[in-house]
From TrEMBL:
<dbReference type="GO" id="GO:0006730">
    <property type="term" value="P:one-carbon metabolic process"/>
</dbReference>
<feature type="binding site">
    <location>
        <position position="97"/>
    </location>
    <ligand>
        <name>Zn(2+)</name>
    </ligand>
</feature>
<feature type="binding site">
    <location>
        <position position="168"/>
    </location>
    <ligand>
        <name>Zn(2+)</name>
    </ligand>
</feature>
<comment type="subunit">
    <text>Toroid-shaped homodecamer, composed of two pentamers of five dimers.</text>
</comment>
<dbReference type="InterPro" id="IPR043134">
    <property type="entry name" value="GTP-CH-I_N"/>
</dbReference>
<dbReference type="GO" id="GO:0003934">
    <property type="term" value="F:GTP cyclohydrolase I activity"/>
</dbReference>
<dbReference type="InterPro" id="IPR043133">
    <property type="entry name" value="GTP-CH-I_C/QueF"/>
</dbReference>
<feature type="domain" description="GTP cyclohydrolase I">
    <location>
        <begin position="27"/>
        <end position="204"/>
    </location>
</feature>
<keyword id="KW-0862">Zinc</keyword>
<comment type="pathway">
    <text>Cofactor biosynthesis; 7,8-dihydroneopterin triphosphate biosynthesis; 7,8-dihydroneopterin triphosphate from GTP: step 1/1.</text>
</comment>
<dbReference type="GO" id="GO:0005525">
    <property type="term" value="F:GTP binding"/>
</dbReference>
<feature type="binding site">
    <location>
        <position position="100"/>
    </location>
    <ligand>
        <name>Zn(2+)</name>
    </ligand>
</feature>
<dbReference type="GO" id="GO:0005737">
    <property type="term" value="C:cytoplasm"/>
</dbReference>
<dbReference type="GO" id="GO:0008270">
    <property type="term" value="F:zinc ion binding"/>
</dbReference>
<dbReference type="InterPro" id="IPR018234">
    <property type="entry name" value="GTP_CycHdrlase_I_CS"/>
</dbReference>
<protein>
    <recommendedName>
        <fullName>GTP cyclohydrolase 1</fullName>
        <ecNumber>3.5.4.16</ecNumber>
    </recommendedName>
</protein>
<keyword id="KW-0479">Metal-binding</keyword>
Length: 205
């Protein structure tokens, strides 16, 4: 290990209270990675790259600064007694896998069965977006989306299915192209009643 890299790693280990590094430190870390891949971070095209990467990370990983439960505090109960399933299908997202920090590209399908109250539809997509903009495993993300809706709305049931392609499997490693991973999470009526679960799955076809 390069002495300067070792110093950075040791300093990171020493500050294991997980204190947030400064922006300058984050930019310096990008510079180290550029040198690691064999680049010259001082050449013209790369001079601003550490700054850009840190700025991009703020956006790509902006989900750490947001609390999904806060998005779901506003509910509506004037729905004329509607108590059937509400399904928001095909919510596009791009997340990043926590093992390799490369993209997970997919769609989330989120359904719930109201118990008197409903959510603003956009809030469901916002919740998916917040969890996506954190480092993830697909399983954890699926469970998190379902759990936060269940806790915030206390509906009769929640069902979440996510289908996604993991770039860590396509652009590196095993290099499978086009495989998709499907995960699902069921709460309440969708967990206890197989016919409700089947109805959710059939509505996704
Ligand atoms: N369960 C699960 N695994 C994931 C997810 N994203 C990536 N992985 C897997 O995480 C595993 C990490 O395995 P390791 O053996 O530690 O890492 P690796 O040497 O890079 O593995 P390979 O990808 O097989 O080269 C790999 O099998 C990835 O496919 C995810 O969302 N869920
Ligand atoms: Zn990965």
């Amino acid at each position: 290990m390069d002495a300067s890299v070792r110093k950075i790693v040791e300093e990171a280990a020493a500050s294991m209270s997980y204190e947030r590094p400064s922006r300058d430190e984050a930019e310096a870390a990008v510079g180290v990675l550029l040198r690691w891949i064999g680049e010259d971070p001082t050449r013209e095209g790369l001079i601003d790259t550490p700054r850009r990467v840190v700025k991009a990370y703020e956006e790509i990983f902006g989900g750490y600064g947001q609390e999904p439960a806060d998005i779901l505090t506003r509910t509506f109960d004037e729905v004329a007694g509607y108590d059937e399933m509400v399904l928001v299908r095909d919510i596009d997202f791009i997340s990043h896998c926590e093992h390799h920090m490369v993209p997970i590209i997919g769609k989330a399908h989120v359904a719930y069965q109201p118990d008197g109250r409903v959510l603003g539809l956009s809030k469901i997509a916002r919740v998916v977006d917040i969890y996506a903009r954190r480092l993830q495993t697909q399983e954890a993300m699926t469970e998190q989306v379902a759990a936060v809706i269940d806790a915030a709305l206390t509906p009769k049931g929640v069902a979440v299915m996510i289908e996604a392609e993991h770039m860590c499997m396509s652009m590196r490693g095993i290099r499978t192209k086009g495989s998709s991973t499907v995960t699902s999470s069921f709460f309440g009526s969708f967990k206890n009643d197989r016919s409700e679960q089947a109805r959710f799955l059939s509505m996704l076809k």
